[in-house]
Write a structure and sequence with these properties.
It contains 14 helices and 21 strands. The longest helix is centred in the middle third of the chain and has 12 residues. Helix 1 runs parallel beside helix 2 and helix 1 packs across helix 9. It has two domains: 178 residues, Flavin prenyltransferase-like (Rossmann fold, 3-Layer(aba) Sandwich), CATH 3.40.50.1950; 193 residues, Rossmann fold (3-Layer(aba) Sandwich), CATH 3.40.50.10300. An eight-stranded mixed β-sheet has the order 12-11-8-13-16-17-19-20, with helices on both faces. Helix content is 32%, strand content 22%. The chain is an alpha/beta fold and 406 residues long. Strand 16, helix 13 and strand 17 form a beta-alpha-beta unit.
Length: 406
């Protein structure tokens, strides 16, 4: 994905700096040359030795590591790297570094390098929720965007402080996806194609505080939506309850239950050229929803009985209605996978089905990777090894592109 690219990775002070080790490793595995630049504060969270070992290049922290006797060539290292790099990604970017870059300060090697760059600059801010929401931080972010800096929004979730909200550094696969999006300037082969993607679980309420659901994170569907948008498609993403930021350039519709997803899908699908149903829709829902919280039984001998009804089969409904659209489904199977997936392919009038087993290593719910097999109505089955979900998404689109109008 990044073969031959020269990447400067800036690491600043924050607990999220621990993820930079995985980020360096994955960039190198993808074929990139990586030069790590750290602030002094970052070295309190992860060592230069760790990142230097993973990158294969000495990490730069100080502007003048040798003091007054530093050779003149070292004093201009930031200029050299500014010319060398194809892109610079700062992840995590602390509130302090975001402020410095926004206002052109150059009081350390990292910020001096930013001013000398001739390549795209990408910042992935990570900080506590109140620091992120602070009006001064938001003004700095707005100023950076106006200057053409690429900003990766922070993820939401539990933070090191114990608070919850936006501020988490995205996982390495998501950061690499953004990095590749900036670097790839190829014409979009999906330009003019309208794509609908569903992602994530549904939550079927039992009472006002409980629900029936599943462990789907939505990452696979979001990866497909991001890849399609990056390749020029007009993408609509129908998302169940997930803690994921919307991919750049994607129109998003949030739903909660299977019934809500069915209505949204049937409303949007007729205008689409390609429909990718990656959502893990709950098969069952409570037959009735209690208006108030159901109280716990008072003794171990008492039991509560929950009566379930079958949820609508959204994929089957689409298959029965489809005309010109290319329709793709996902089959999550733990046994007899190939046979069950092929039966679904035929019964639901699909053009392609993506088979995976969550019990297989590298394919678990919430994982950054997946292990899948493409089973098509036409063409041979294609089995992929363990790959990042962003790469699975690219390969899926490669398989689908010949099925779409030129």
């Amino acid at each position: 994905m990044l073969s031959g690219k020269r990447i400067v990775l800036g690491v600043t002070g924050g607990i999220a700096a621990y993820k930079s080790a995985l980020l360096v490793r994955d960039c190198v595995r993808a074929g990139a040359e990586v030069q790590v630049v750290m602030t002094q504060a970052a070295t309190r969270f992860i060592t230069p030795l760790t990142l230097g070992t993973l990158s294969g290049r000495a990490v730069i922290v100080e502007m003048f590591p040798g003091g007054a006797d530093e050779p003149a060539a070292q004093w201009t290292k930031h200029i050299e790297l500014g010319l060398w790099a194809d892109a610079m990604l700062v992840a995590p970017a602390s509130a302090n570094t975001v402020a410095k870059i926004a206002h052109g300060l150059a009081d350390n090697f990292l910020t001096a390098l930013v001013l000398a760059l001739r390549c795209p600059l990408i910042l992935s801010p990570a900080m506590d929720v109140d620091m992120w929401r602070n009006s001064r931080t938001q003004r700095n972010i707005a100023l950076l965007r106006e200057d053409g800096v690429h900003i990766i929004p922070p993820d939401e979730g539990e933070l090191a402080s114990g608070l919850s909200g936006p501020g988490r550094l995205p996982e390495p696969a998501a950061l690499i996806d953004h990095l590749r999006q900036v670097l790839e300037k190829r014409p979009g082969d999906f330009a003019g194609v309208r794509v609908l993607v569903t992602a994530g679980p549904t939550q079927e309420p039992i009472d006002p505080v409980r629900y029936v659901g599943n462990r789907s994170s939505g990452k696979m569907g979001f990866a497909v939506a991001a890849a399609a948008a990056r390749r020029g498609a007009a993408v609509t993403l129908i998302a169940g309850p997930v803690a994921l930021a919307s991919p750049p350039g994607v129109r998003r519709i949030d739903v909660g239950t299977a019934e809500e997803m069915l209505r949204a899908v049937l409303d949007q699908a007729p205008a689409q050229d390609l429909v990718v149903m990656a959502a893990a829709v709950a098969d069952f829902a409570p037959a009735s929803v209690a208006p108030t919280k159901i109280k716990r039984a008072r003794t171990p001998q008492e039991h509560q009985t929950l009566t379930l009804k079958i949820n609508p089969d959204i994929l089957k409904a689409l298959g029965e209605r489809k005309s010109r659209q290319i329709l793709v489904g996902f089959a999550l199977e733990t046994e007899d996978g190939s046979r069950n997936a092929r039966r679904k392919l035929e019964e639901k009038h699909l053009d392609l089905i993506v088979l995976n087993n969550p019990l297989e290593e590298g394919a678990a719910f919430g994982s950054e990777t997946n292990v899948v097999t493409f089973i098509g109505a036409r063409g041979a089955d294609e089995q992929l090894g363990q790959l990042p979900k962003a790469e699975v998404a690219e390969k899926l689109l490669n398989r689908l592109r010949p099925l779409l109008p030129a």
